[in-house]
Specification:
95 residues; 2 domains
Length: 95
């Protein structure tokens, strides 16, 4: 698994360089923690002799919090809650 800059280098040179995560076993389940949000690429290298068939299955699940949406949502709640609270108190005093 490589990040965006390593992928750009890979496209230019054909060499992987630094890897975030590397797995060299068969039938292995792995969990990978990505350092930050962004684009990541899975590179599969096939060292099987020509005319051999290899079945590859990749299952993935993305979990976690996307801070790009989470932070503005929290900020909106921090502003909206006091405004709604004071608006309801003001309405009660007026009636």
């Amino acid at each position: 698994m490589i990040g965006q800059s390593a992928y750009d280098r890979y496209k230019e040179t054909g060499s992987l360089g630094e890897e975030l995560f590397s797995l060299h076993n068969n039938d292995t389940v792995s969990h990978v923690r990505l350092p930050t949000s962004g684009n990541y690429y899975i590179v599969l290298e096939n060292n099987v002799p020509m005319h051999s068939e290899v079945n590859v299955t990749i299952h993935y699940r993305v979990s976690g919090v996307n801070l790009e949406f989470f932070a503005p949502g929290v900020a909106l709640l921090l502003v909206a809650c006091p405004v709604l609270f004071y608006a309801s108190r003001w309405k009660k005093k007026g009636s």
